[in-house]
Amino acid sequence: MNDYAAISTFAEELADVARRIAREHFRSTTAFDLKADSSPVTVADKAIERALRADIEERFPEHGIFGEETGRTEGDGRIWVLDPIDGTKSFITGMPLFGALIAFVEQDRPQLGIIEMPALKERWSASQGVTAFAGRPCRTSDCKTLADARVHTASPDIFTGQDWERYERMSRQAAIRRFGGDCYQYGLLASGFCDVVVEASLMPYDYMALVPVVEGAGGCITDWEGRPLDFNSDGRVAAAASKALHAETLEYLSGNA
């Protein structure tokens, strides 16, 4: 049986480590390498993941770890999912909207999630069905229709072909649409400052931590077909402030609207 209070406390400690290392490098580390998928990686990405992995291995040696930079090690069915810098392009260009993502997953479902924003010194933490921002519970907005919604996505570059066409049609129905923000968008959704976030081309370490944060604040987050997000999801993510708004969003993303 898991002691989620102890695991949550430990996850906060991991987020503190990620914040410290990221802030040491931010706006002083600009060099980067390109990985096989053409995405950038810096010494900060590697240093954060190395430190978090070492801490997890020491505290919970029986748990698995899935990190963006160092891959996956299997454990006893419980696994930590790490994205040391979500938004490396923001990081290397001096934009403060990058984050660190930490998730604890059991039986393929994320039970705990943290969105840590090192440069802004902000954090959303979710565990046992409750999401907190700066230590206080937060809630999504009560928006129920796209006509009233504020829609966010990180970049139009993440969509290809038909996905872009469906996103374009959906987002044009909204009151406001914005680009940019990486994982920060989902924190804003959890705190009621935006109403829909839609993305594609994501990996499990990009979205696992987001699930508890959005759901614990009262929102909905699935793939574009309405299925729960897991390690086998196709990377297309749709999050919304309410069930009604989520359903309307999926109508456009599925091509049915």
What do these coordinates show?
With 257 residues, the chain is α+β, with helices and mostly antiparallel strands. It has helices spanning 4-25, 43-59, 88-92, 161-171, 184-190, 204-207, 210-216, 243-253, and strands spanning 33-34, 40-41, 64-67, 71-73, 78-86, 99-106, 109-117, 122-127, 130-133, 136-137, 150-153, 176-179, 196-199, 220-222, 237-240. Strand 9 and strand 10 (136-137) form a beta hairpin. The longest helix is centred in the first third of the chain and has 22 residues, at 4-25. The termini are far apart. The mean pLDDT is 94.
Q: How are the SSEs placed, and which strands pair?
A:
Blueprint: H1 4-25, E1 33-34, E2 40-41, H2 43-59, E3 64-67, E4 71-73, E5 78-86, H3 88-92, E6 99-106, E7 109-117, E8 122-127, E9 130-133, E10 136-137, E11 150-153, H4 161-171, E12 176-179, H5 184-190, E13 196-199, H6 204-207, H7 210-216, E14 220-222, E15 237-240, H8 243-253
Parallel strand pairs: 3-5, 11-12, 11-13
Antiparallel strand pairs: 1-2, 3-4, 5-6, 6-7, 7-8, 8-9, 9-10, 13-15, 14-15
Helix pairs in contact: 1-2, 5-7
Q: What's the helical proportion of residues?
A: 25-40%
Mass-distribution shape: globular
Helix-and-strand structural type: alpha+beta
Describe the largest sheet.
8 strands, mixed
The number of helical segments is 8
* Mean pLDDT, all residues: 94
Q: Which radius of gyration do the C-alpha atoms yield?
A: 17 Å
pLDDT below 50 for ≥5 consecutive residues: which ranges? none
- Describe the oligomeric state of these chains in a short phrase: single chain
Distance between the termini: 45 Å
